[in-house]
Design brief:
The protein is of the alpha/beta class and about 650 residues long. The protein contains 17 helices and 18 strands. α6 crosses α7, α8 crosses α15 and α15 packs across α16. The protein is flat, with a radius of gyration of 28 Å. The N terminus is likely disordered.
Length: about 650
């Protein structure tokens, strides 16, 4: 079978000479994986639809529609001469369904539209695999001055061409990066690509139906004051109709039949404290970046309030009088406190609604912490449910003090101090609440998540959780432990409890395939990174909804994914973040309306809103050394 594989004249294989000359060598799992990727092709020089799809899926510059480790299963064999071309999509790749969406954010200035739009882009890319790109309207004129009706729409055609280029292309035509640059490759150079496409799919290629990746264009303005009169702002009923008419020209053009779903998303604030917080964040950011003098914040704040009032006189909100009932839209009031939707059908729009109901640009902090050293960690074994070692318990003690002092801002109480009334207020571990008049500020109501495995529960077991006053004045058990099975470690299946060396011996093909495709490879009867991304999604949405600090004590694979999502790192890079999520380290992530400005997308280049609290050397190692010295002294007492 292997030696009958033919090479297409159109696609010569430069690696054919890599086949082993010794047929006995073909029995090795590594060789089988390579040889199985070869598939017999027809003698005709024109590649079939299956050939094109296989070639496309293996193209280095393209996007994979399925885990790389499944490629050999799609190759023809004597037992399966006509294999499945593309496997069914998994949950983590549900955005790859060939749909085009345009999301247009509306609303007054200083309501957090830009932050929410960019956060939504990260969410759709990370959890649904959709290709997303943000289009900033205010970038058309530099966003410096308030436009007049005479200046508006000068650059509309340029903006539309960029939007159209992103929506109208097929994955197989070219690979477009976030900066809009185009690179060819793979099947994109084939003459088959010149045919008219429907949703980027060759209509003559029946096997290729619904395998083109979905694309989501997110239109927003980072300076609503400067782009009010721009048609793409959607700031009036007339401009919203103009947007629909423009996008309809893409679907009706002679060169393409791309179907586009347009969704308007209006962000509205009716609570004064939310308006004050967003304005305060804006002024703090201007001072921090040198655009505003610290002693001018009061005057600048009043000036911004007046600008918003002038904008409000001209802005036309989405109408509920029936005149815009034919539009697909969502009204987000006070960041999910109240949500109104209209004609939001299909899978992805519903996921968008669910996510936007939870997210908000107000200040909140996430702490990520890997469990302390476990017994399996000392031997390098995968998975399992082993307890902590002595070193692990040392870190648990350090974490409990960090959580009490730094996260909850509790006050330590020493036995014998104060009177009986004070002692009744003391929570577990000798900690008590700070009042509003305390010089270090009041205590903070905080949350705690752990997985259901022993090593995380034990790591968080010493954290105090006294009852304090919550944000609404009611009693709140701070750091009340919540066990969340969705953040359990990746399940290694048949490889549970094995060392990497034992995996190579007992599952040699599994070891090789996982090296090739760490994010998509699923352990035998276990999980892949795509699986844990799918089960993390509900946790992420709940996490996004919190305003209180949250400490998550979990595992390396889980925390890599959460850390990658929060810091804007592509999910394909999450499994390879070897320098992040170390034991005995707490990662503090402070999120607000300016967080998106600091995202680098580079795994080893931490954004400015991430603070690393490293307890490995000064705390854990020194404590272990001191304990060892005391034990030696007890065994060999001085005369």
């Amino acid at each position: 079978f292997f030696w009958r594989a033919q090479v297409s004249p159109r696609y010569p294989d430069p690696c054919l000479d890599r086949f082993p000359k010794d047929t006995g060598a073909l029995r090795s799992p590594a060789c089988f994986r390579w040889c199985a990727c070869r598939r017999p092709m027809s003698n005709d020089s024109t590649p079939t639809a299956a050939d094109a799809l296989l070639r496309r899926s293996m193209d280095v510059g393209g996007e994979f529609l399925y885990p790389k480790s499944q490629q050999d299963l799609l190759s023809a064999t004597e037992l399966n001469p006509t294999p499945t071309t593309v496997p069914p999509p998994m949950a983590a790749m549900a955005g790859n369904i060939g749909e085009r969406h345009v999301l247009v954010f509306l609303g007054l200035p200083l309501v957090g539209k830009r932050t929410i739009a960019l956060r939504l882009k990260r969410y759709l890319r990370f959890f649904h695999g959709a290709k997303c790109r943000g289009f900033d309207i205010s970038a058309l004129d530099g966003g410096s001055n308030l436009m007049s009706p005479l200046d508006a729409n000068t650059h509309s055609s340029e903006f539309f061409n960029k939007l159209r280029k992103f929506l109208d292309c097929s994955d197989t035509e070219f690979h477009q990066g976030e900066d809009g640059k185009t690179t060819g490759g793979g099947v994109g150079s084939s003459p088959r690509q010149n045919r008219t496409s429907v949703n980027g799919i060759d209509p003559m290629d029946k096997n290729a139906k619904n395998v083109d990746s979905g694309r989501v264009a997110i239109v927003f303005s980072s300076n609503a004051m400067s782009s009010f009169y721009e048609n793409w702002s959607g700031s009036s009923k007339e401009r919203r109709r103009w947007i629909l008419a423009q996008l309809a020209t893409i679907s009706n053009s002679s060169k393409s039949k791309t179907r586009i779903k347009t969704i308007f998303i209006e962000v509205t604030l009716t609570k004064k404290y939310l308006e004050r917080e967003i304005l305060s964040q804006k002024l703090e950011r201007d001072v921090r970046e040198g655009r505003l003098e610290p002693n001018s914040t009061r005057e600048a704040g009043q000036e911004w309030r007046e600008k918003v009032q002038e904008y409000k006189k001209l802005y036309v909100t989405l109408q509920d009088d029936g005149s815009e009932d034919d539009l697909s839209y969502m009204k987000l009031i006070n960041y999910g406190e109240r949500v109104l939707t209209n004609r939001m059908r299909a899978y992805l729009p519903q996921r968008i609604v669910q996510f936007l109901t939870a997210t908000h640009p107000t200040k909140h902090t996430i702490y990520l912490c890997r469990h302390g050293q476990s017994e399996y960690n000392t031997t390098g074994r995968l998975g399992g449910n082993s307890p902590l070692t002595e070193q692990g318990w040392v870190f648990a003690e350090i974490l409990s003090r960090f959580a009490a002092q730094h996260v909850c801002k509790l006050k330590e109480f020493h036995s014998g101090q104060g009177d009986g009334d004070i002692e009744e207020q003391v929570g577990a571990g000798g900690w008590m609440e700070r009042g509003a008049d305390d010089e270090e500020g009041p205590s903070v109501a905080a949350r705690l998540w752990t997985s259901s495995l022993f090593r995380t529960i034990q790591t968080a077991a010493l954290i105090p959780h006294p009852v304090i006053r919550g944000p609404d004045g009611s009693a709140w058990e701070s750091m009340s432990p919540r066990v969340y099975r969705n953040i359990d470690e990746i399940f290694a299946g048949d490889c549970e409890g094995l060392t990497p060396e034992e995996v190579k011996v007992s599952h040699p093909q599994a070891s090789n395939l996982r090296k090739m495709d760490k994010i998509g490879y699923r352990y035998p009867r276990g999980e892949s990174y795509f699986d844990i991304i799918s089960r993390l999604e509900p946790c992420i949405q709940e996490m996004e909804s919190y305003t209180e600090p949250l400490l998550i004590v979990s595992h390396q694979a889980i925390l890599r994914c959460i850390f990658a999502y929060l810091t804007g790192v592509d999910r394909e890079k999450a499994p390879g973040m070897e320098t992040q999520i170390q034991q005995n380290v707490v990662y503090q992530i402070d999120l607000d309306a300016s967080s998106e400005d600091h995202i680098t997308g580079v795994a080893n280049n931490l954004p400015a809103f991430v603070t690393v609290h490293d307890f490995r050397k000064e705390e854990v190692e020194e404590t272990m050394l001191a304990r060892t010295c005391r034990q030696l002294q007890s065994l060999d007492p001085q005369p």
